[in-house]
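S1.2 Input.
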Amino acid sequence: LIFGNEARGLPDEFLSVGTSVIIPHSAGIDSLNLPIAASIAMYEATKAEFKI
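S1.3 Output.
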């Protein structure tokens, strides 16, 4: 997993290598901070791997 910052995301060379995902959130929220986004992504990856 590779995470970009809230303002600029990832450079194009990273985006062209893998699969991008978006974490849906409420309309009033502009972005999630990195620790929260990373936690959600790692939870979802673990859930998929171990059928939680």
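S1.4 Remarks. The chain has two helices and no strands.
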